[in-house]
Amino acid sequence: MRTHNHILTWHQEVGGLGISIKGGKENKMPILISKIFKGLAADQTEALYVGDAILSVNGADLRDATHDEAVQVLKRAGKEVLLEVKYMREATPYIKKNSPVLELGWETLPPESPRLGFVPTESPSPPPFSLHLDYKDRKSIPLKMCYVTRSLYTPDPENRQFELHSPDCKHTVVLRCKDPTMAQAWFNTVQANTNNLTPKVIAEVKEQLGRTGLAGSREIRHIGWLAEKTTGENVRQSLKPTLIVLTEKDMLIYHSMPRMKEAWFSPAHTYPLLATRLVHSGAGKASPQLGMELSFATRTGTRQGIETHLFRVESNSSLSSWTRQIVQGCHKAAELIKEITTTCTYRTQECRLAIHYENGFSILKEAPEVSSPKLIWQYSFEKLKNSSDDGVRMLYLDFGGRDGDIQIDLHSCPKPIVFIIHSFLSAKIARLGLLA
């Protein structure tokens, strides 16, 4: 047995004391050092050991302290700390190394908490388990809204691992299998089970949001994870998990799964489906898993220009599902919204440009002497021969007239209008059954 005092001095900005503790009065145990972090102050003393009981900190007696009280005393200890410690052989069983399973840093809601945003007040009791396994050597990871992927953050040259990312994107578990065949089988099974939970998630989100809906839409058509490619020299480092939500009218992008109602109303990006188009879908560069990497890209016309997003998917079925959802979402948004109007200047006159899904293009001028605006001209979509823009503010429409292009000053970037015209045309063609 040894009892000794030791003074530690450190600067908080370089990591602090560097110990973890366990025990406490409520556990009928002394305050024990359970872990010493390499390179930090406690480790540098070479005088402290895992299993040492902390009797006092700067003279504050911890012999009868609870775990929380000890934590607070250590937090308030300052940059120079006097520790009185005692090695206790009888405490060794309490600080033996945990199972690697228990060291997984995964903190999320238990599977029996179905409501998003609900935080349980107490930990669930261990569920019954038919196999003869120690419950302490088991970690339960709810699959609901986990992102199941391959080779996103960790290289996999042997092609035998896959990754689980928590809904809040704070935790990742990499699972390595015996061989590529087993890895693919496990990946397919886990991903399928995760996908099967999606309808339940959509129902829960709709219930949570209530009548307000999301981004002005009452319906959530699809929700799921993709790997978005961002700018960067290293290909793997430029991939990040991205949650995509498709509503009746919009494509919403989140960097993690919202838990509370308020977070749903603050996506990282909101793009109108009516001004969005699918521009690429299929195989890209080589991928160790599938022989080639599958991806798709979207482009959205905004007042700042065109915004492009490139997403990687994990399988052909996922690629097919996402591209179908986006294309059909654009068409349904066109049928739902029907008409958009914007102010413009036409032949030096301040007017309104109206584009209607059924009726086509109109230029209207407000007439103070009458209640309804004066129609200057109107053309159907069938008359449109060509459309273009200058990328700054001018829209050019060619309806085959003798005067050539009609020039319309939109006062801002014309890209949203150009993309909306494309969506209306695409939806009308699809309605005729001309698209596969």
UniProtKB/TrEMBL annotation:
Q: Does the keyword Membrane apply?
A: yes
Any one GO MF annotation of this record = structural molecule activity
Which domain of life does the protein's organism represent?
Eukaryota
One GO CC term on file:
synapse
Q: Which residues form the PDZ domain?
A: 15-89
Q: Which UniProt keywords apply?
A: Actin-binding, Calcium, Calmodulin-binding, Cell junction, Cytoplasm, Cytoskeleton, Membrane, Phosphoprotein, Repeat
Q: Does the keyword RNA-binding apply?
A: no
Descriptive protein name: Syntrophin, basic 1
Native species: Callorhinchus milii (Ghost shark)
